[in-house]
Design brief:
- There is one protein chain.
- The protein is an all-alpha fold.
- It has 2 domains: 184 residues, no CATH class; 89 residues, no CATH class.
- Helix content is 71%, strand content 0%.
- α1 runs antiparallel to α2, α2 packs antiparallel against α3 and α3 packs parallel to α8.
- The chain is globular and about 70 Å long.
Length: 275
């Protein structure tokens, strides 16, 4: 099970990264990503229905950690698609709309506070009730969604975990959009444009942040990202999600930084040869 899941997840992450970094139309790329995620979940479901789990511990781990990680991507991209296609025109109307979406996340948090505490505290005493198929307790933060799901591939709370993971990413996205919205009336015009892809700049920003080169390491990553956006006339979008995708790479996590190093070394060596 572990091998099949890891292969499926890595394949999905790689495909998503390629689509998001190369697509010209964000909404079209999201449509393609959603279809990829659906296919991956279908493959996982087929595998589990044929092979099943070795024991209860493996089942709990899958429904508490593995499946929610993929389902959260589906929730996230579907939410972003809706947000983008319904976004109104005008700075003030857009700001009001985005704040309304943030309030929806806050309501979900408030309505599920007990489960948030259980999950984020890494508790396990209720796991056999929450993350084993065919078991549920209607008094334990149970959603109506559960009764409509395929119980061969669902437990009472794996979707709620996915929702928590997705909402964290959606919040970052909305706050980023609000920041960009605010900057439209205050940003200055800079002469340089970033012409490499957004993933490369995100990689550079996180590298600089990890080295604590701004304000003795006290600068917030969001402030650093906004400064780069203004300086190089680029909108990084959900740069945190891009970072998470970089982090999940199994090989060559620092492709851009490695390329910078190699290019600089070649330039130095060339300069030395012509002296």
């Amino acid at each position: 099970m572990e091998k099949f899941y890891n292969e499926t997840h890595l394949k999905l992450e790689t495909a998503i990264q390629e689509i998001v970094s190369e697509a010209d139309c964000p909404t079209k790329s999201i449509e393609a990503v959603i279809q990829l995620i659906i296919t991956s979940l279908s493959d996982l479901k087929d595998f589990i229905l044929k092979k099943d789990f070795k024991n209860t511990e493996e089942e709990i781990y899958f429904f508490k950690y593995q499946k929610p990680l993929i389902v959260s991507k589906l929730i996230y991209y579907n939410a972003i698609y809706k947000i983008e296609t319904r976004k109104p025109y005008g700075v003030k109307r857009t700001r009001k709309y985005l704040n309304k979406e943030l309030k929806k996340l806050k309501r979900f948090f408030d309505n599920n506070l007990d489960f948030y505490k259980y999950y984020r505290s890494n508790n396990s005493f209720l796991d056999e009730c929450l993350f084993v198929r065919g078991k549920h307790n209607i008094g334990l933060w149970l959603d109506t969604f559960y009764f409509e799901a395929d119980h061969r591939f669902s437990t009472s709370h794996d979707y709620k975990v996915a929702k928590i993971i997705a909402n964290d990413l959606i919040q970052v996205y909305l706050e980023d959009q609000l920041s960009n919205n605010k900057q439209k009336n205050t940003s200055e015009s800079y002469p340089l444009n970033w012409t490499a892809n957004k993933t490369a700049l995100t990689e550079l920003i996180y590298a600089l942040h990890s080295q604590a080169v701004f304000d003795n390491g006290n600068a917030d990553i969001k402030l650093i990202a906004r400064t780069f956006e203004l300086a190089f006339n680029i909108n990084l979008g959900d740069f945190y999600h891009t970072y998470m995708e970089l982090k999940s790479r199994k090989i060559n996590r620092t492709k851009f930084l490695d390329g910078l190093r190699d290019a600089l070394i070649r330039k130095m060596e060339w300069k030395e040869r012509i002296k």
